Amino acid sequence: MTDRQMPKWSELKPLLRPKPVTVNPTERRLDKALTIADLRAIAKRRTPRSVFDYTDGAAEAEISLRRARRLFAEMELQPSILRDVSAIDLGTSILGSRSELPFAFAPTGFTRMMNHEGESAVVKVAADAGIPYALSTMGTTSIEDVAAAAPDARKWFQLYVWKDRDAGEDLVKRSAAAGYEALMLTVDVPVAGARLRDVRNGFTIPPSLTAKTVLDASMHPAWWANLLTTRPLTFASLSSWDGTVAELLDKLFDPTMTIDDLNWLRSIWDGPLIVKGIQTVEDARRVVDAGADAVVLSNHGGRQLDRAPTPLRILPDVRKAVGGDAEIYLDTGIMSGADIVAAIALGADACLVGRAYLYGLMAGGRRGVARAAEILTKEVRRTMALLGVSSVADLNPSHVRLP
């Protein structure tokens, strides 16, 4: 029979460790987010459905996006034990300069709709983290204002080729004048993908005040208050648009663009050139031969051609074909630091994350973006340590097995 006794205060006292009270509601909300999926759940609660679905959704049946995430989920990491991982170096070289982390912030359109702090918040976090940030042609903060928001950040400008080539050339020249490091040409949008969530939600830029959105406003008052009391959304190309995003892209972008247009870009831009939207080995080799310094293996986050090739699947073959002639980056489906580690091991020089930081932005503005970067950084470091790897440069195909 077990003897029992009442505990003494001296025994109870060490066990009483009340959790510090976080006064700021945003910080309190973000502290509960331990993964990017947690940030996504918070973002979904705090953001109007049409805006969240624009960020979260993909084209048609959204098969491409699900396949990308499923492949990351099903890949197998191969650890090597009894390695000294007391010091982990997460830095790597991107375009010849050190990045403190093996990922960068991808270009995303209409960012100030997700949260009024928008691109300025994202570039500031990128500067703090020591990683590049790419501003989209369809951004809602000007090239110059983003440069002023974070003068020391590594900034890239993402370009779509417009039907109006003079307008595109003006953007390139403004980027050069504002000190942007690289130009990222996106080549997978000859026409817009069928983003059915946007059509079903009646999504416009900026959101229209209809009976449906007024009802939604009652459920998301903070988001609407921020939208209506901060400066109006403005774009490089227009002040507003009554149709869907897909209709806007079809109006602006040039479907006649070919590989020969890289020569035109080279004539107006003499810095590093990144080509984004590569989905086959043959196209990777073609654009590198045409002068690209880096390629991004990407199916546009599943937002263009549904059932497109999965970037992680083709990565090893592209690495073999390109060799050391160009850097290779990868996006689409990345939801964790382990995903980033796997891509680096299979041959990527770095990854681009988009939705991951947008979930953070919707969940808590600049602090939410910083939380997303913090989550990914911790996951990359922990995954490398558990793999027995102390440096990004030491990751290799032996660390990953694809199904």
TrEMBL record:
InterPro entries: Aldolase_TIM, Alpha-hydoxy_acid_DH_FMN, FMN-dep_DH, FMN_HAD, FMN_hydac_DH_AS
Species, as recorded: Kribbella solani
Binding locations of FMN: 107-109, 136, 158, 186, 276, 298, 354-355
Residues at the catalytic site: 300
Cofactor(s) essential for the protein: FMN
Domain of life: Bacteria
Swiss-Prot/TrEMBL keywords: Flavoprotein, FMN, Oxidoreductase
PROSITE patterns registered for this protein in UniProt: FMN_HYDROXY_ACID_DH_1, FMN_HYDROXY_ACID_DH_2
CDD domains for the chain: alpha_hydroxyacid_oxid_FMN
Protein name per its UniProtKB record: L-lactate dehydrogenase (Cytochrome)
Keyword check for Flavoprotein: yes
Domain FMN hydroxy acid dehydrogenase: 28-403
SUPFAM superfamilies per UniProt: FMN-linked oxidoreductases
Family to which the UniProt record says this protein belongs: Belongs to the FMN-dependent alpha-hydroxy acid dehydrogenase family.
Residues the record lists as binding glyoxylate: 54, 160, 195, 300, 303
UniProt-recorded Gene Ontology molecular function terms: FMN binding; L-lactate dehydrogenase (cytochrome) activity
